[in-house]
Amino acid sequence: MAASMIPSIVPVILSGGSGTRLWPLSRTSYPKQFAPMFGETSLFQETVVRLPETEFGRPVIVTHNEFRFIAVQQMMAIERAPGAVLIEPEARNTAPAVLAAALHIAATSPDALMLVCPADHAIAEPELFLDTVRIGASATLDGSIVTFGVVPTRAETGYGWLELDRRLGPDEAPRPMALRRFVEKPDAGTAGRMLRGGRHLWNSGIFLFQTATIIAAFEQHQPEMLASVRTALESARPDLGLLALDREAWSRVEDISIDFAIMERAANLKVVPLAATWSDLGSWDAVARRMESDSAGVARSGPAYAIGCTESVLRAENDDQVLVGIGLNNIAAIAMRDAVLVADLRDSQSVKQAVEILRMEDIPQATGFRRCHRPWGWYESLALGHRFQVKRIMVNPGGILSLQSHYHRAEHWVVVEGTARVTRGGETMLLSENESVYIPLGTHHRLENPGMVELHLIEVQSGPYLGEDDIVRYEDVYART
Length: 481
Fold this sequence. Notes:
By secondary structure, this protein is α/β, with parallel strands linked by helices. The chain is built from 11 helices and 30 strands. Helix 3 (94-108) packs across helix 6, helix 3 crosses helix 7 and helix 6 packs across helix 7 (223-234). The longest helix has 15 residues, at 94-108.
């Protein structure tokens, strides 16, 4: 396919996962795809940047309702605009998400190609990845579904594999090849044999196809899902520039991956080998491989120190803490302000099980952070005691909290940076740094940031009940009333 045809490819970024295997850095309220894993930008942002607007259409983002504002804010931070943001009322795995995107794109661009990319993958050589996508694009013209198989470098048991119909040559140029079958995550012995045999690739979960091709595949293999997803899209409602899929229709959709729903049943599959350094970052072991290590194989991030350690990863995620490892071997030590994980890297896949145990015990750290993100900014609890709570609040430039009141608490706000516009009852006032205001119990109030810089303030709550559900909203620009 000529380079001039590349703009017909519309990226579809799947970003609704919870990423619990990278706990405590990744949690349900703010999963790994939105976290800065290797620098200042998130995996989600890296995925978008990897697909330049000079060659690709504006991406269609498919994400969970809880992450809709995070995704939009992170797009704005890298100065990229989405073509559309489809909001899933609840997680239903990758098959329904891909189908919803395909139906949406086909409605306006029926001849477009779709490049399906999970938002939580790391690819070290973006240009090599783009070259491989260009090669795969030509194979879609005859109605093939193209997947990209990563050339394996080890006997990995945490990935699914793809079996080719012949052995791949060591210096063979990438080109579309026949795909014999999908292989589920193997045991160590099977993975070793597949690695040595040279006929298997890692399943990247990245796909390329015409919208008409994938819709036809769902019509053949998943007709009930096609009907429900089509209804969910036709009955979707605009939500602040986003598109919220219909909740009732979406609830009837089966929770199933695109691999099980379509790929393992379709006969029109081709695979293009991808030689780039790739990882789905599904474990701390995978993260450790992407981090820079010292001569002893120790990867460190933040204020972390290693004494006599080997083949380990030490991450301190807050500048006001210190993590020290002594004599560790093959250990992941991940320290956050409110939770610490210490695990054998060989067993880091079991982190998901640990999170489930914490969830059953109603431990808040299982799913949430002390810092809670909202469409207007974030807040975090600094101190909580009998009848009082102290919070730090950040409001983005232009951010507006809802007009609200509380039944059980009064609040005192102290501005520490920026300018606040405060509505209290029937009056409106501007507060600058070191100025404060008292909000009596039951009073209608609203906080806004009219400035060009972030607004930071300290909130002191007092009352018999301080839960987040003690909020009565009267007006809200983010449609949460």
